[in-house]
Amino acid sequence: MIEIAPGVFVRRHTELDLTLGLITGSGDSLVVDAGLDPVFARAARPSRIVLTHNHFDHVLATEAFLPCEVWAHEDCVVDGRVLDERAKYYDDPFEGTLVAPTHTFRESVTLDVGGRRVDLHHFGPAHTSHDVVVHVPDAGVVFAGDLVEEGAEPQAGPDATPSNWRAVLDRVLALGPRVVVPGHGNPVDARFVREMAIPAAT
Ligand SMILES: [Zn+2]
Questions:
Q1: How far is the CA of 42 from the centre of ligand 1 (A)?
Q2: Tell me: the pLDDT tens digits for 161-190?
Q3: Which of 123, 127, 153, 167 has most Cβ atoms within 10 angstroms of its Cβ?
Q4: Is the separation of the CB atoms in 82 and 60 below 8 Å?
Q5: How far is the CA of 115 from the centre of ligand 1 (A)?
């Protein structure tokens, strides 16, 4: 766990170079993305988890965090297609239960995490139809999910909208972040996001 701002942590994983987040307030915490394994859940006992999008590497371990609220965009569907996607990467069967979001929003919602303000935003389709950006205003930190990748090119699969990606990143930059945490790779600054190449349509 790396503390990138007071009470704001990232957890880096060698598996898929995944990056998860933990935002703490007074006696409360919120996790950004569940990841693939239950280890993080045992360390963090959040009251809420936010799923940035429904790709398997971001949602599979949600069950391990329960009981907690599971937040996502209203178009975030967690169903058997998540496991179909996982099967392209892993041969062993998935042991566990998929967890659907319990709390959803359309454009923005503000949460109180132990007295700390955390905003969830959806700025339109890009990496998926339902990408969620998590903003911690007092820390100048934005968790961008797979809108941003460091160490590898961002991924545009069949569910991506590359033509809108730059516009979404402009909305992220308009938040004035000091640190942007990608879904994969190390935290970056605003300049990295400004200069990031947008993946071509597939
Ligand atoms: Zn993704």
A1: 24
A2: 999 999 999 999 999 999 999 999 999 999
A3: 127
A4: yes
A5: 30
